[in-house]
């Protein structure tokens, strides 16, 4: 920790922000420091840490001072960490929070995660070494490369050896995992090729293969995650799974959709359903494919796609004309209305409010006034007045 | 005279040949379906074996996830297509990404009033992590990108726009063409852009420039500062970084505008 210097927290000209992560605590070696909760900032030139509450408490360290770094996995009750091993203190170092330290490494403890991305960017910066090519406005004190070369603190050799061993061990694990993965993929490829053959046969036959068999085939494709080459996506996968799902959904969604005025955006349905399930979640495609079957299964709901591409689940009892009439009435009462105002008034999302007003416009009952200020809808006086 | 190839006899023969071919064709497809069913069972076993050895690897290593996804894509398999797929069921990849999808939607919805439905991948990443809490698993930006790609099928206009060195995530069905995207790229440097900047870097005329900026304003993706010293500045809230902005609720925003 004695390698850090006090900093203003501002980046120099030509120094660029790479990534920052909140919720990080600093360790001096293995000991916790009073730099308990802050944001760690990586730039092209430095590693900074800024206190979460008091922004003016900020310390920094040059990237050139980093020898190497490694991950320390999270444990029970312990956050994931990145251990950063540092060069010895340069003689001309400016004032910092620690006069001295018995450790030549620090740890960044990621209490709110973010270590994967931070590790990746730190690797990139340390391999690109942009600070060597881009000079900044204020000269940053740097230990000088020749110094780093000559003065090797004791223990670095030992660290490097340990790292090499660890790397070999990790490599072995990774290699095994990837080997197994490759073998698995080969087998999966066989399945893909077979499915293509079958799909072609089905296409050529045009109906000589039984309905049941087509459904069976589709369920095989679903299990493997192979796109349906026969029907592409026009009518969904139509497997038993989706039929079951459609029935389930229609039951669960009845009340919430009604509450929302008879219509709910598919993204909301996705969140609602998956939050309720907790596990064995639905994929977005599962949801869409199931909803596409509502009509065919005579369920009291419909999947509807607006011109804008927005998809909603709509109650079959939802009376379009009534909705439009009520929207027009509201607009007439007020003179004009925007989507946001209408949304607040009726208690639905802005997205759906907009779609409803657009529908009314489409059938000619409303006119729009589209300005930079907002999109407003007016009653269509061309229709009603003489 | 006898003519070969035509006549009722020839036609009947042809029909018979066709019927036989069709019959055999049907049998072949059935055979192959049965074969596929068997192979599927075998594959499932292999996948189970793989899962028992390496399921943790997928959970813990984002790098492994990337490799895994890339290999699947190469052979034409989408492990995230369905929660009912083998991959999802046995490797648990599904739940990881589908839940991430929910979290992404929620963050985008919460911020839409402020940034119009456009957000940097960096900010999205930070906020999703915050929402996940201390005990959840870490996610990389690659994970987010894959989850977003899946969300596209929900029809709400989810897309990823590369802008300079960064990525922007769009979560509303606003139409953004090449002109809009290139203006976003110019704005990326300082968080805002001016008419003269656009005209000088892109060599556009005033008409085109104004059209693009107006569209961004209408969609709520840009705000205009008419009190800027030299000329109006068009700011993109999506590009504000944490260093400059504060969290403001819609009510607070409304109040401050009164």
SS-based structural class of chain B? Answer: mainly alpha
> What level of helicity do the residues of chain A show?
40-55%
How many beta-strand elements of chain B? 6
Q: What's the CATH architecture of the largest domain in chain A?
A: Orthogonal Bundle
What is the second-level CATH architecture of the largest domain in chain B?
Orthogonal Bundle
- Overall domain count of chain B: 2
Looking at how many chains there are and whether they match, the oligomeric state comes to heterodimer
CATH homologous superfamily classification of the largest domain in chain B:
Winged helix-like DNA-binding domain superfamily/Winged helix DNA-binding domain
Could you estimate the helical fraction of the residues of chain B in percent?
55-70%
Largest sheet of chain B: 3 strands, antiparallel
Number of domains of chain A: 3
CATH superfamily of the largest domain in chain A: Winged helix-like DNA-binding domain superfamily/Winged helix DNA-binding domain
- In DSSP terms (H or I, runs of 4 or more residues), the helix count of chain A works out at 12
Strand fraction of chain B equals 5-15%
Write down how many β-strands of chain A occur, each being a DSSP E stretch of 2 or more residues: 15
How much beta of chain A, percentage-wise? 15-25%
Pfam families (chain B): EAP30 (PF04157)
Subunit structure (chain B): Component of the endosomal sorting complex required for transport II (ESCRT-II).
Keywords (chain B): Coiled coil, Cytoplasm, Protein transport, Transport
Family (chain B): Belongs to the SNF8 family.
Q: What features would you highlight for this structure?
A:
heterodimer; A: 386 residues; alpha+beta; PH-domain like; Arc Repressor Mutant, subunit A; 3 domains; nine-stranded antiparallel β-sheet; three-stranded antiparallel β-sheet; 12 helices; 44% helix; 20% strand; flat; B: 258 residues; mainly alpha; 2 domains; 10 helices; 9% strand
